[in-house]
């Protein structure tokens, strides 16, 4: 350690996505629209699932939870990114940085575990339809969701616990638009080789194994569907296709970022934007455009709003 730099860093400069003023303004306009669509789309799904009795099933309960998590996940990073795009020299305190890191991994961890629960739900529904209501009752579903939240908390607190012990004595430039482990580790003024191995194991390898497990489960489901009636097979295929698309959009970028040594590559920021900002916007469209029940429920909810006295035409 250099004695001249033996002073604790209390804030970091976020280098963000771009340096030019015109480009930052353009990105602000684009990502403002993306964030508004994300909030509206995900909260709409939560409202529709809550308001329509026919959607009070396990599958849609889990979908509503995922949409709420997508809203929260985007909110952890997007508002701060938008403000920083307009700032001249955006900085973030160490405390705020660790707080953002905690919620980022907390919600991200819940999403990964919840997607596993959703895959299990579809597996039971297709493989054991007669026992589905018994195996995936409200109590079982609630416990699985609670376990997902607990798993996300444990995952996140481990990340923060390992990171908060790092000594930061300079440099203080964080090469990203939000705080995350790979960038913070690079700024530590100590040997972080063992810590990197722990982080890669905790993040990357676990994510990769979950992804392979999910792909295997959906492959097994597709094999089961071969002997079903055409109408039932088509409906199940549409649901599974939506799940696989969302799983791929979430897991593949995470594997790219975390399942390798923490080195900088040209595509890192683009991939980070994809899974922190863009993917939460796409999930509502993926789940609703091919889901007739959701579309019908939205139409009914819209019709109910139009039919209120305040919306009637005179």
UniProtKB/TrEMBL annotation:
SUPFAM superfamilies: Family A G protein-coupled receptor-like (SSF81321). GO terms for cellular component: plasma membrane. The chain crosses the membrane at residues 25-48, 60-82, 102-120, 140-158, 205-225, 237-258, 270-289. It is found in: Cell membrane. InterPro entries: GPCR_Rhodpsn (IPR000276), GPCR_Rhodpsn_7TM (IPR017452), Olfact_rcpt (IPR000725), Olfactory_Receptors (IPR050427). The keyword Transmembrane applies. GO terms for molecular function: G protein-coupled receptor activity; olfactory receptor activity. Residues 41-287 form the G-protein coupled receptors family 1 profile domain. Keywords: Cell membrane, G-protein coupled receptor, Membrane, Olfaction, Receptor, Sensory transduction, Transducer, Transmembrane, Transmembrane helix. Coiled coil: none annotated. It comes from the Eukaryota. Its main location: membrane. It is a multi-pass membrane protein. Pfam families: 7tm_4. Belongs to the G-protein coupled receptor 1 family. This is Olfactory receptor 4D5. It comes from Dipodomys ordii.
């Amino acid at each position: 350690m250099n004695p001249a730099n033996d002073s604790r860093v209390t804030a970091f400069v976020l280098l963000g996505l771009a340096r030019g003023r015109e480009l930052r303004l353009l990105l602000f306009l684009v990502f403002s629209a993306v964030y508004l669509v994300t909030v509206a789309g995900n909260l709409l799904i939560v409202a529709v699932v809550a308001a329509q009795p026919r959607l009070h099933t396990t599958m849609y309960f889990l979908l509503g939870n995922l949409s709420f998590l997508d809203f929260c996940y985007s909110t952890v990073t997007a508002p701060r990114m938008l403000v920083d795009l307009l700032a001249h020299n955006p900085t973030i305190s160490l405390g705020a940085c660790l707080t953002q890191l905690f919620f980022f991994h907390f919600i991200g961890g819940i999403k990964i575990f919840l997607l596993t629960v959703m895959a299990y739900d579809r597996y039971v529904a297709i493989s054991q339809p007669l026992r589905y209501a018994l195996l995936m009752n409200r109590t079982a579903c609630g416990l699985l969701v609670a376990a997902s939240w607990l798993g996300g908390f444990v995952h996140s607190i481990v990340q923060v616990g390992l990171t908060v012990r790092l000594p930061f004595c300079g440099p203080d430039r964080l090469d990203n638009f939000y705080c995350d482990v790979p960038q913070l580790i690079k700024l530590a003024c100590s040997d972080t080789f063992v810590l990197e191995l722990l982080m890669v194991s905790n993040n990357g390898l676990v994510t990769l194994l979950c992804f392979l497990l999910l792909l295997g489960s959906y492959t097994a489901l597709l094999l089961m569907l071969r002997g079903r009636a055409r109408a039932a097979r088509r409906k199940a295929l549409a649901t599974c296709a939506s799940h696989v698309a969302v799983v791929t959009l979430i897991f593949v970028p995470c594997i790219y970022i975390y399942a390798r040594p923490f080195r900088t590559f040209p595509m890192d920021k683009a991939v980070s934007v994809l899974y922190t900002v863009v993917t939460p916007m796409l999930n509502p469209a993926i789940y609703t455009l091919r889901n007739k029940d959701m579309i019908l429920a939205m139409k009914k909810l819209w019709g109910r709003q139009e039919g209120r006295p305040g919306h009637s035409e005179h």
